[in-house]
Amino acid sequence: MFYLLNIFIQMKVLLNNTSLFESLRPFNDRGFVPTMGGIHNGHLSLINKSNKLCEKTIVSIFVNPKQFNNKKDLKSYPRNIKKDLKILKKSKKVDFVYLPKFKEIYKDKKKSKITLHKKDKILCANFRKGHFEGVLDVMNRLTKIINPQKIFMGEKDFQQLYLVKKQLEKKYKTKVIACKTIRNKNKVALSSRNFLLNKSNLVMAAKIYAKLESIKKNIKNKKNIPNFLNFQKKELKNTYKIKIDYLELRNIKNLKISSTKKNSRLFIAYYLNNVRLIDNL
Ligand code: AMP
Prior knowledge:
Layout: H1 2-10, E1 12-14, H2 17-24, E2 30-35, H3 41-53, E3 56-61, H4 71-76, H5 81-91, E4 96-98, H6 102-106, H7 123-127, H8 131-146, E5 150-154, H9 158-171, E6 175-179, H10 199-219, H11 225-240, E7 243-251, E8 264-272, E9 275-280
Parallel strand pairs: 1-4, 2-3, 2-5, 3-4, 5-6
Antiparallel strand pairs: 7-8, 8-9
Bound molecules: adenosine monophosphate.
The site of adenosine monophosphate has 17 residues, from helix 3 and strand 5.
């Protein structure tokens, strides 16, 4: 009984900005974990970190339509608020869950002029037009509303983390904290989109990850890395009959194409069962 009472006391659900402002006012040391729901252990790792480093942890669940460049993708994005709330409550690490409606976030009609630099129009920005403009816009708005001291984001979405960190830390007194990618037992990166995959898709994702690891290992002997990766991309395409948007080695400090393994990661975006997956290692 006490146990049950405890989980209810521990987490407050905030449905609008008025209750959010009121509830957060007494607390300055706010850790913020923005999500689009479909809560999994990747999200929970961010939450754990926030819980350790901050006085209060606020998780938002908001499927931001403005960052979807494809209507079908937005429609099929996994949504299960009831299940999400249950998982978050059970974690006992969340103080507040913010579930805003669209108008709550976009009330402020002022068009925030967000344009990507030419040099940033790479990787996902090149294949999902308008996506990061939507991400940066919503992160700007959420940061203004929540005013967090720290924001926790995953390295799984490395380019997102890179762009959001660059923008928000310049504009606000907030620090964006990078969190490691959490993987399943077969090393497939956890993602809400994995809920749209079947067992055999997941087996294939595991095989693709194993292949990526071996590609990364072999990179160091290669003279012309882009050529080598082009060849590997074709081989992956043919072996698994998948569409691949990119397979590139990039420097983690500036995301420029890299000609050395040092300070670099291998970035991939590909489709399984019409679901677009991204990873980096
Ligand atoms: P999403 O709900 O997919 O928008 O993700 C919300 C946050 O969780 C983002 O900062 C993601 O980078 C992060 N995240 C998603 N998957 C993982 C994962 N497997 N490991 C660590 N962080 C993740």
